[in-house]
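Try this one yourself first.
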């Protein structure tokens, strides 16, 4: 079944008593004008078919939602990283007030900004109100801070590594990796200099030191996409050489949290694996597919 990418937020509404006749339902809310237009087209097409055929139709579609509410894992990760940053600065654990004050300072430094409706000035987006993209970009900033300004003890390093691996897994599920973009909404990719500045530790192991820009799809395989940020991955020199020796499939057996990023780069470069090709060929694009018609108008 095709996936339809809509710039919307989705909220599951549960009824007091859930039955087959009284199921839960999902409310979609557009996040921009493009999302509003797309939703209107989708349901207008459904309504037109129902009028012409004098019967009700059900839309069967899988929605690949780009902007979702920030996840519980993202929220937890933020506070683990805030405490890790505090522990690199102070000997004693923070009080709740001290931790929140540091969090506010880090928001000012690394969070995405929105316009304050009262003053007209920009303010940082709190993790409690962030969507999944904004949450990921804030976590990227916190990890950058840790890699450039903090000296962590062994126990804290272990906590940060857990967050790093989970963060990479989450990023791999997005249609576009938010940290690849300087301006996500306009699909402006980060230039190489800015990308290198942000990538101070290996995406594979979390180690610092001599970090190299490795290409997921090689120049010989796809020269056109060689210089796009979504095709880059940060590795140590030793990891980079290992990947060249054993190839991506075996490399991902060692570092499975990178699979989403590697698979996405292959798709964006048009280098589809056999399983993905089979799935695509199995999709039947029929005129009666209402959602496909609506999205293609």
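Now uncover the answer:
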């Amino acid at each position: 079944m095709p996936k339809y990418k809509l710039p919307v937020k989705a909220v599951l509404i549960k009824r007091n008593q859930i039955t087959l006749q009284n199921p839960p339902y999902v409310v979609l809310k557009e996040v921009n004008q493009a999302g509003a237009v797309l939703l209107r087209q989708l349901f207008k097409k459904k309504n037109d078919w129902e009028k012409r055929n004098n019967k009700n139709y059900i839309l069967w579609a899988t929605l690949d939602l780009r902007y979702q509410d920030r996840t519980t894992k993202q929220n937890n990760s933020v506070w683990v990283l805030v405490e890790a940053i505090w522990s690199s600065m102070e000997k004693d654990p923070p009080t709740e007030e001290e931790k929140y004050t540091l969090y506010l300072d880090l928001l000012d430094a690394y969070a995405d900004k929105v316009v304050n409706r009262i003053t007209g000035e920009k303010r940082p987006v709190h993790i409690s109100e962030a969507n999944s993209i904004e949450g990921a970009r804030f976590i990227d900033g916190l990890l950058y801070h840790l890699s450039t300004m903090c000296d962590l003890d062994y126990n804290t390093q272990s906590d940060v590594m857990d967050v790093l691996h989970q963060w990479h897994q989450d990023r791999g599920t997005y249609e576009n990796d938010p940290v690849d973009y300087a301006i996500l909404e306009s699909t402006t990719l980060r230039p190489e200099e800015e990308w290198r500045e942000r990538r101070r530790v290996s995406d594979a192991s979390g180690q610092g030191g001599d970090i190299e820009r490795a290409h997921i799809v090689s120049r010989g395989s796809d020269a056109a996409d060689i210089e796009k940020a979504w095709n880059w991955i940060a590795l140590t020199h030793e990891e980079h050489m290992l990947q060249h020796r054993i190839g991506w499939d075996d490399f991902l057996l060692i570092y499975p949290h990178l699979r989403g990023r590697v698979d996405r780069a292959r798709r964006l470069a048009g280098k589809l694996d056999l399983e993905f090709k089979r799935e695509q060929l199995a999709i039947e694009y029929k005129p009666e597919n209402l959602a496909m018609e609506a999205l293609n108008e």
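Discussion: The mean pLDDT is 78. Strands lie at 3-4, 8-13, 25-30, 62-63, 113-115, 122-124, 181-183, 188-189, 211-215, 232-236.
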